[in-house]
Design goal:
The complex is a heterodimer of chains A (430) and B (431). With 430 residues, chain A is α/β, with parallel strands linked by helices. Chain A contains 16 helices and 8 strands. Chain A is globular. Chain B contains 12 helices and 20 strands. Chain B is flat and about 95 Å long. Classes of the chains: A alpha/beta (430), B alpha+beta (431). Chains A and B meet through helix 5, strand 3, helix 6 and helix 16 of A and strand 11, strand 12 and strand 13 of B. Bound molecules: zinc ion (ZN) (3 copies).
Chain lengths: 430, 431
């Protein structure tokens, strides 16, 4: 029988060496990350918010904006999406909708809104081409200086676009992405966990990465691109993971990717565990494939594409995600091997530390973002107690499983994300 | 057909006028004779192609809107009763028509009333008032039987309302909202600038690099290569496919899925969007038994009860008033109008037409059997016998709720209870 206070009692009984042998995983791999991002974000929160000078504002006002939204069977989302675009404080010069072979009447609906003048270009693929191809069609027809890629099933703050394009004052910026919040946080436990996950990752992780100039994914649901830049690197590659791939190519060509923290988009996250696992398996496989298979050369120092920052960024990811994920099961096994049943106590102690870290991270993220409603915070706060299990154990297992799948079977080649005839051709010929 | 009673029917010889002149070798059938000066003309026989203005002059000279006109040469103009089907047919047709005309009483035969003329023509031509499509007519539709009469469809609608003619659907044609001409050109055009100078282009999707763009981008480098990855596209279904198409305007450069449809009036040059173009329904008419009696007796037949389409409203109103005078039972007449009518009609005329029809149907189903409805230019008049003002208002509020439930647009239902003076104004305006 394990006493609830046993882990705490145990902690006081050991010397440093034993203590380290029990908690090395957390000390080596987890605490640094939390601490680093906490410190950097805390420092960043003191930095004065930059307001564009009149000249910069004139430059921003002169930019032409094209919004490209491609979707498959999103008929129900279009009205809400257009309503939030209609509320934007920044002028949008062109709205392009691409219906990718929908069968739910999306084609008729975008046609209707085009007749009403709320959409400028409404096109349809009779057969489904995949997210990348339909976005590419929109990108190749867009005439704006900045092309903003949005999702029909997201909704946006009324100043989202204005804030999203602010970083383009810097001519070296090729793409920006904004903060993403969870709209359906109160739907189920699964969405509540994700809401916490998004709050922490947006409030802490992304801000830290932005400070270090290491933002690597301008989201396909919420990203802005300089037209010259994406035409230079050649639009989107076949999916999945195409938004991440495009951002990496932009970085490789020397473009900066910025995170516009005050630009907010809200989306519905998967509401059931099965859907969540499906989504994460796809994301994790794509990330691994894109990073290791397609961008292996960032590790070859003599290659022309080598850049110190890129390599550091890749290493950071490798350690923080790859290594942590792979080592975690080894750590658990090792604990049981060394300490037998006592390992349970240690794991509970670890969980308690996580709880504290999570709570601190959550509170800091809330303090920094100042975007979440009190209702949302109170609704998701109880789930913090078990968030460590969700994030530290469950998600880690999903990720491990996905990496294994990708590594062994190249599963992402057979993803149903693109229609099979397309992805078969695209991957077979690569 | 010999009537045997009237003297002239026993002498079946008919007078005809030949124009321009009777050929020397032309032999007219027995029973006909060339008209002598001062005699009544039973038929006008055209022996050659006659210009419009000459025909009009000679018809004015004859002064009989019912006279049969037949042509011995092909002639399909309005008002020609036979032409191009052979001389034999022409003579027989003329004879049949003039025989029918002789059955008419003098009050109809010599009436100058357009309604009488139309009924007499329909009766004597014995084939109903059937429209034909004719590209030469401004409405694209004309009624050959109606001869030189104007406003035939309005006249016929009036006679249908009175029960003398019965209509059936013939066709529904769009007409210019500006000049009412049906000479409309239907075109595919640009959504932005309404130019017809547009081209369609297919969209190409290259599987390997996920590039998707109009075909011209793939053709610009001589062969058929991808502008994004520079690889050649060789095999449809394997390298690439064509998932859709775009329409590009060559005037303003705007791009769209499908071209817009527009109507251009050939007569006045005005341009209209499809939802601004009203449709006009055309009917064919046949003479009813009441109509036939009216033609043959020469006066409105009082013994005939009101048929469907007869002015039920007026009859009921008179009856209700009599009831009020004699028994003191109150009645109400409500004038229903639609505040949003002009707004809706300006946006989408056809939507308004449909809405108005729906409102009519809803009124008929929501009101009692004893109530009567009459449509007028601004809306409807509703007669509610044996009803006090409060009950009438409550019933109309129910009707308004029902209409709101049925229509997709809010027509702005308003009603006022009108007194007798205002009612007289309405009824006299109706004619
Ligand atoms: Zn145009
Ligand atoms: Zn290509
Ligand atoms: Zn016209």
């Amino acid at each position: 029988m394990i006493e609830l206070d046993a882990p705490l009692v145990m902690l006081g009984q050991f010397d440093w060496a034993t203590w380290f042998s029990m908690f090395w995983f957390m000390v080596l791999l987890e605490v640094p990350r939390y601490t680093l991002s906490a410190i950097s974000v805390f420092a960043a929160s003191f930095a004065r918010p930059t307001v564009p000078t009149p000249a910069e504002q004139r430059y921003l006002d002169g930019l032409k904006l094209s919004v490209v939204i491609a979707g498959h069977n999103e008929a129900d989302a279009i009205e809400r999406c257009l309503r939030s675009l209609g509320e934007q404080t920044r002028r949008i010069d062109e709205i392009i909708f691409i219906d990718d072979g929908s069968t739910d009447g999306m084609r008729e609906i975008i046609h209707k809104y085009r007749l009403l003048g709320q959409i400028d270009i409404a096109l349809s693929n009779q057969v489904r081409s995949g997210k990348s191809a339909s976005c590419n069609l929109g990108f190749s027809l867009a005439r704006g200086d900045i092309i903003i890629n949005l999702d029909a099933d997201c909704s946006y703050d009324c100043d989202a676009i204005e804030r999203l394009i602010e970083p383009f004052i810097d001519p070296r910026v090729g793409a920006t992405t904004g903060s993403i919040g969870v709209r359906n946080y109160d739907y189920s436990a699964v969405t509540a966990y994700q809401a916490i996950e998004y709050i922490v990752s947006i409030g802490m992780g992304k801000r830290a990465l932005d400070m270090l100039d290491m933002v690597v994914c301008a989201s396909g649901a919420f990203g802005a691109f300089r037209r010259g830049a994406i035409h230079q690197v050649g639009l989107l590659a076949p999916g999945p993971g195409e938004d991440f791939d495009l951002t990496l190519r932009l970085r490789r060509c020397g473009w900066k990717i910025r995170f516009a923290a005050n630009s907010w988009c809200f989306t519905d996250t998967p509401a059931t565990l099965a859907a969540l696992v499906r989504q994460r398996r796809r994301w994790d496989r794509d990330t691994l494939r894109t990073r290791l298979r397609k961008f292996r050369d960032t590790f070859h120092a003599r290659r022309r594409r080598f850049a110190l920052l890129e390599t550091f960024e890749q290493c950071e990811w490798l350690v923080m995600n790859g290594l942590v994920t792979l080592v975690f099961p080894i750590y658990v096994a090792w604990l049981f091997l060394c300490f037998g049943v006592g390992a349970l106590n240690i794991l509970i102690a670890v969980a308690l530390v996580y709880l504290v870290l999570d709570a601190i991270g959550f509170l800091m993220a809330l303090a920094i973002c100042r975007r979440y409603s009190a209702a949302m915070v109170w609704a998701v706060a109880p789930y913090l107690l078990t968030f460590g299990l969700y994030n530290g154990v469950f998600m880690r297992c999903v990720r491990l499983h996905a990496y294994g799948e990708e590594w062994i079977y190249r599963a992402s080649s057979r993803d149903s994300y693109s229609p099979s005839r397309v992805s078969h051709q695209a991957h077979w010929k690569r | 057909m010999l009537m045997g009673v009237d003297g002239f029917a026993l002498t079946p010889t008919a007078n005809f006028l030949a124009y321009p002149k009777l050929h020397d070798e032309c032999r007219f059938p027995p029973g006909w004779q060339l008209v002598a000066r001062g005699e009544m003309i039973d038929a006008l026989v055209l022996t050659a192609a006659v210009p419009d203005n000459a025909l009009r002059t000679i018809l004015a000279h004859i002064g009989d809107p019912l006279v049969p006109i037949v042509s011995l040469v092909p002639d399909e103009r309005q008002g020609i009763d036979a032409g191009g089907q052979g001389e034999q047919f022409a003579w027989e047709r003329a004879y049949a028509i003039q025989a029918k005309l002789r059955e008419l009483p003098g009050s109809i035969r010599h009436s100058a009333e357009p309604e009488d003329i139309l009924l007499a023509r329909v009766y004597s031509r014995d084939q109903g008032l059937v429209p034909i499509l004719d590209s030469g007519a401004r409405d694209l539709v004309r009624y050959p039987v109606a001869g030189m009469l104007d406003n035939v469809s309005e006249l016929a609608a009036g006679l249908d309302h009175k029960g003398y003619l019965r209509r059936r659907f013939f066709d529904r044609l769009f007409c210019c909202p500006q000049c009412r001409s049906a000479h409309l050109s239907v075109r595919e055009e640009c959504h932005s600038c309404r130019s017809a100078n547009i081209t369609e282009e297919v969209v190409v999707h290259h599987f390997q690099c996920a590039h998707e763009a109009p075909e011209s981008q793939f053709r610009s480098h001589g062969g058929f290569t991808c502008p994004k990855c520079a690889r050649p596209l060789r095999h449809i279904g394997l390298d690439y496919d064509k998932p859709g198409s775009i329409t590009r305007c060559l005037e303003c450069g705007s791009i769209n899925d499908k071209p817009a449809v527009g109507f251009k009036c050939i007569d006045c040059g005005a341009h209209h969007a499809p939802d601004q173009v009203p449709a006009r329904t055309w009917y064919a008419y046949s003479l009813t038994a009441v109509g036939q009696r009216r033609v043959l007796r020469g006066a409105a037949d009082e013994s005939v009860p009101a048929q469907a389409g007869f002015d039920r409203f007026q009859l009921l109103l008179e009856h209700t008033r009599k009831e009020q005078r004699e028994f003191g039972s109150p009645y109400q007449v409500a004038n229903v109008t639609f505040a949003n009518r002009s707004v809706i009609a300006a946006q989408d005329l056809r939507l308004w037409e449909q809405s108005q029809q729906l409102v009519g149907d809803t009124l008929h189903s929501a009101l009692r059997e004893v109530d009567a409805v009459r449509e007028h230019a601004e809306g409807f008049l509703i007669l509610m016998p044996r009803t006090g003002p409060h009950d009438a208002a409550r019933a109309l509020q129910l009707v308004a709720a029902r209409i709101r439930g049925v229509l997709k647009v809010d027509p702005g239902f308003r009603f006022t209870l009108v007194d007798d003076v205002a009612l007289e104004g309405f009824c006299s305006r109706q004619g």
